[in-house]
Every structure is written in C-alpha cells, then in structure tokens.
C-alpha cells in the first residue's frame, strides 16, 4: 500500500463504497432467489446472503493472518460479529409497523442465534485449554467447521418439521414467496449476478485488509482497535446495507437470518485464519481484549435472543427495548476498548 496516509484513507473509503453498493444489490437478488427457489428467506439469509456478505471479512482476516498479523485477523473477525448484531438494532429504526424482534421471530432464527452462542464458546475454550495443534491447526478450528455444518442442517430440518412455532399476531411478518415459477435460465442469471456481486465484495475486502494494516502502522493505533472497529465495521457494511434493504422490502426473515447466519459464518474466520497463519495455531494469540470482545458478542446475542422470545410489539420511539440495549452496550463496550488500548 501507499506510504501516504491520505491515499490509504481514500482507498479505504473507496472500498467501503464498493461494498455498500454491491451489498444493496445482493439483498435484492437474495430475496428473489429465496422466492424463486423455495428455500425460504431464513435459510437463504443464513447460508448464501450471510456467507457471501462475509467474503470481505474473510479476505481481511485471512490476509492479515497470512502476513503474520494474528491480532488484526482475530479482531476483525470478532469485531465484525459484534457490530453486525447491532445492525439489527439499527434496522429496527427502518421498520415502523412493529419492533423487528416481534415481527421477525421464527424457529429458524432462534436456532441460528443459539448456534452462534455455541460457536462463540469454542474459541474461548481454544485459548484457555492446553495448547496443541495437528499440522499447525488447532482442534477448535475443526470443531467450528463441523458444528457450523451441523447447525445449518438443523435449521433446514426444523423449517420442514418444526415442533413449535412463534405465536401469530397481527404484526407477525411471514415469509411470503412470490407466486409463479421461474425458468431455469432466469435462475441461472440470478445466481450468476449473485456470484459477481460476491466477487466485488471479496475484492473490496482484500483492499480493506491492506489499507487497514497500513493505517494501523501509520497512525500508531493498535491492531486490536483497527481490527475491532475500523476494518470490522467497513467489512461488515454489506450486512448493514443488505439488512436495511431487506427490512425496507418487508423481507424481515431474510434480514434477521442474514445477520445471524452471517455472524455464525464469521466465527469460521478464526478457523480460516488458523489455517493461513504460518507460525502455528492462532488461538494462543487471542488476547484479553479479544476475549472481552467475544464475551460482549455473546451478551449482545443473548439480548437478541431474549428479544425474539419476548416479542415486544412496540418500544420507546418505536424501537424495541432489546435493540436500544444492544446499541448502548456496543457503544459503551468498544469505547472502553478504544480508550484502554
């Protein structure tokens, strides 16, 4: 990257703009794919939208790990999960009919949120347990991948044969697929356009990684701050854009499923970074600051789960109490990290 801080900041902003524009289009394409394929918004959001919008985060963390910067790789992965959870609170402002947690409650989203908490516990065990690895890969990385695949299979199965469902109210927003069948050629075009947008996001994420490393060096900020705040927020812009766009389109299950599913996928960034890190297992590099970030993310996800279960119809300023609490805790938590770094 350039030795000029101004040029690096400009490239950083340019990458952020590209991510935002591509993310907006991706939300629309994902909503259409959910309807045309019959897979459903929650699963499309978790598997395809969440995973694809996480490509920029993957590029950032893996690049940082490969270049011997484990602190930035870990902070970007964990910081992205926290801010993306808070994005649901921001999206709540854009849905005026009721609180988002009330309207978008579903068994699929509840299971995904529970899976996320489970996955977040794995790196805590990985960093606090006796350190050993096989071919430079920690067993925690294998556990993360296996657990994620099992969780997706569980979400798919409960959608088909759910043992219970959230109570229907006049404010409940169900996934209503568009009527009519789509031709094979139209589906192929949708998938191709989705893939192109994913490539744009991944490429922009790589540029964010490079400029983020340079900004960290030139400003003297710690990699934990740069990773947990700046690169994490920018590489998470697709989630913010797609979430708000989905909410405005009325695709609430897609919005919530995309964020929670994307968060679950983002935990795998630790496994990918572990594979890319040439000096051994990356888990011993998890610092106290990053443990704090994991605990904060578990707290935010727990509050979101309570909101989906409690299902308050209206709150102060037409935003749910849980959304307000998540925003407050996130700001306070990362302000504390910023000033203590």
Give a brief description.
The chain is built from 13 helices and no strands. It is mainly α and 341 residues long.
List the helices and strands and how they pair.
Blueprint: H1 5-37, H2 41-53, H3 55-66, H4 70-92, H5 100-103, H6 107-128, H7 139-160, H8 184-219, H9 223-235, H10 237-249, H11 252-276, H12 288-310, H13 321-340
Plain-language structure description:
The chain has 341 residues and is an all-alpha fold. The chain has a single domain (5-174, 183-340), classed as A middle domain of Talin 1 (Up-down Bundle). The chain has helices at 5-37, 41-53, 55-66, 70-92, 100-103, 107-128, 139-160, 184-219, 223-235, 237-249, 252-276, 288-310, 321-340.
What key phrases describe this protein's structure?
single chain, 341 residues, mainly alpha, A middle domain of Talin 1, 76% helix, globular
Broad structural category: mainly alpha
CATH topology: A middle domain of Talin 1
Number of strands: 0
The poorly predicted ranges are none
């Amino acid at each position: 990257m350039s030795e000029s801080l101004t040029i690096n900041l400009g490239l950083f902003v340019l990458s952020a703009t590209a991510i935002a524009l591509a993310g907006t289009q991706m939300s629309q394409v994902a909503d259409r794919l959910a309807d045309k394929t019959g897979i459903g918004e929650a699963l499309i959001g978790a598997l395809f939208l969440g995973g694809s919008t996480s490509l920029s985060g993957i590029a950032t963390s893996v690049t940082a790990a490969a270049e011997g910067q484990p602190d930035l790789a870990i902070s970007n992965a964990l910081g992205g999960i926290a801010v993306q959870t808070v994005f649901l609170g921001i999206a709540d402002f854009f849905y005026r009919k009721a609180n988002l947690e009330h309207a978008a409650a579903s068994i699929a989203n509840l299971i995904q949120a529970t899976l996320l908490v489970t996955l977040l516990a794995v790196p805590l065990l990985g960093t606090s347990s006796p350190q050993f690895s096989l071919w430079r890969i920690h067993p925690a990385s294998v556990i993360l991948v296996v657990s994620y695949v099992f969780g997706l299979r569980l979400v798919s199965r409960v959608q088909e044969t759910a043992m219970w469902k959230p109570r229907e109210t006049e404010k409940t927003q169900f996934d209503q697929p568009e009527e009519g069948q789509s031709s094979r050629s139209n589906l192929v075009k949708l998938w191709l356009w989705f893939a192109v947008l994913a490539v744009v996001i991944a490429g922009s994420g790589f540029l964010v990684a490079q400029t983020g490393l340079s900004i960290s060096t030139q400003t003297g900020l710690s990699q934990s701050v740069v990773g947990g705040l700046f690169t994490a927020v920018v590489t998470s812009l697709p989630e913010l854009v797609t979430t708000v766009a989905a909410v405005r389109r009325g695709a609430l299950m897609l919005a919530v499923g995309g964020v929670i599913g994307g968060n679950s996928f983002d935990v795998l960034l630790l496994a990918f970074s572990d594979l890319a890190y040439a000096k051994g297992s990356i888990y011993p590099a998890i610092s106290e600051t990053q443990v704090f970030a994991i605990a904060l993310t578990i707290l935010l996800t727990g509050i979101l789960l309570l909101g989906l279960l409690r299902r308050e119809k209206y709150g102060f300023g037409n935003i749910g109490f849980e959304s307000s609490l998540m925003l407050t805790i996130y700001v306070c938590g990362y302000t504390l990290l910023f000033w203590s770094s």
